[in-house]
Amino acid sequence: MATGQNSAPEPEFPQYSRLPAEMKDEIWGQALLRRGMQYFVIDGQRLGEMNMSMFNCYIRPLAKSQDTSAWRRQNIVSALDSSARGVVKRQRQEAGSKKMFPVYPVRSSPRLPASIAYVNCDRDVICFKIQGRIVPIWERPVPVARLNGIKRVAIEYAPQPVGKGFVSPSTSFCCTPEAHRRAPLCGKLMALFLSNFPDLEEFYILYVPKRNDTQCVVKKKGAGAKAGGVKGKRAMDRELERFHDIAREKNLAIFEDTKFKYIEIVKRDVNKNLGSWDGMWRALREVRLNWEHYQKPAFFKRYAYKSPNIKLGIVVRAKI
Fold first, then answer.
1. pLDDT (tens digit, 9 = 90+) per residue, 20-47?
2. Measured between alpha carbons, how far is 209 from 227 in angstroms, rounded to an integer?
3. What Cα–Cα distance (Å) separates residue 284 from each residue in 183, 217, 268, 290?
4. β-strands 311-318, 202-207: how paired?
5. Is 230 strand, coil or helix?
6. Are strands 261-265 and 311-318 parallel, antiparallel or unpaired?
7. Is this structure's pTM higher than 0.90?
8. Residues 270-288: pLDDT tens digits?
9. Angstrom distance (rounded) from CA 303 to CA 152
10. Sheet of 58-61: strands edge to edge?
């Protein structure tokens, strides 16, 4: 119902109730996000100062006001009518479906039945935020069963400025300036974290573009075009649209959540003026070098662990 004189009326579909069940299922199936971006927090600090690690991690979603995860669309659709609930129920029973929340490792865990989170490990990518100390698989007595089956993992690239003002890492993947002069996001820590996923197939560094990332100028066409062309946000938007077209053409990965798309990029397609993105490629290269080190026979002989072959890449967030 409209609340003001200028408010747009809510859309209506009075003939919906007359549609056959197959068409209703098709509508709700199209409303769900098939390749979703999911956000979760691995909270080791929650279990107390004596266990601030992934020995017994607690996995929870982000706060609802900050969370755009694809599974929240699933919950919204399931509350609409019986047909929508049936479609969601069948999707949660598909191969690769995994319940991520709520899972109760300790009695004090909050019970929020309205926030039931299912992901599909065969299609979705899960972006983890870490609170606590990162522990590799060969330092833990038992694997974390809640990480089994997950095939695609992402970590957001959010480096903090390094210099005299550096106080403490803002995330568990940041190092001190002494360890990383040029890229405060540590590839070694990311590789140690990935060792906890026995079924891992793909890893992505996720980047949220900034308005001042690009210094490129997109020239306007036409006699009335102003000198200098388009800079800043508009230039960045055009770059992201170009990345989207390239991803569709080359069959690169594209994921979605309730608000954004996440587009896989390759370095040769990135504009040279996006020099501020060089830190991401350095961090990804460091992950690759450490991951290859975990595959060496000498490493396996010492730690009884050999990393699987995985795909490494970068995805950028875009509102398209």
1. 999 999 999 999 998 999 999 887 654 4
2. 25
3. 10, 27, 15, 10
4. parallel
5. strand
6. antiparallel
7. no
8. 887 776 688 889 889 999 9
9. 24
10. 58-61, 37-43, 125-131, 152-156, 202-207, 311-318, 261-265, 254-256
